[in-house]
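Dear U.,

Please find below the material for section 3 of the report. The protein was modelled together with zinc ion; I have listed the sequence and SMILES used, followed by the predicted complex structure.
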Amino acid sequence: MDEIRIKLETELREAIGRLRQLGGGITAEELPGAIGDNSPCADEVDEIQANESRELGFVTRTMLVERVNRIADALERLSEGDYGVCVECGETIAPARLRALPEVQTCIRCQDRLERLERRMETVGALFGDTEEEI
Ligand SMILES: [Zn+2]
């Protein structure tokens, strides 16, 4: 399991490093349970930054924040001994899957089910207008 911890920690640092490069401080709120370093980034956001790239940056940033949270979560589960167990059904997640995606929280079956559910919700959302929800 040590190998996985090292891998997760490396990925966590990488993701945080990339967040820093994107600019803007990382708040403790965004990174619950993550490394306790929330010092604001010294880099000022350039005024010349075009709206387009700012929007792109925002999307990338959101994805990175989600990733950091997932990894931090996985690390927490690792230290609590819950790591490698599917949060949906409680089954053990296949080791190969964990090696490929160390931050996953669901087994492949549940992932499949959730993705199908998500697609269905998207369809429903498209039918009834914007009903995007925070989960
Ligand atoms: Zn499962």
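For the text of the report, you could mention the following: DSSP finds four helices and no strands in the chain.

Regards,
Y.
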